[in-house]
Amino acid sequence: MVSVFISHASEDTEFSIRLTRDLNYQNFDARTIRDIIPSDIKLSKTRLDRRVTEAISTNTYFVPVLTPISIESHWVKKEIHAALATEKKTNEYISNTRFGEGVCVT
Questions:
Q1: pLDDT digits (tens, 9 = 90+) for 41-53
Q2: Number of domains composing the chain
């Protein structure tokens, strides 16, 4: 099964949940950070960074949800940089999803 890590700003959670559900319905193993680290678990910044980097590097694809809010998000930028570093090592491709004004483009 092809695995997908979806990066998004917290303000885009609803869209990301729908995207995850739709991809899983199409037989992908799609996850967001909320699936990997439940919200009731508190991690140090170092451990959180490590878990996010591990999640990105162990999935087949990285899909950032790009919105006006997410492109300003510190965490989304950090996740994109981690994905780019992984891409250089593995030659895997990064896909992206832009969402805004009622249109979703992949």
A1: 677 777 777 888 8
A2: 1
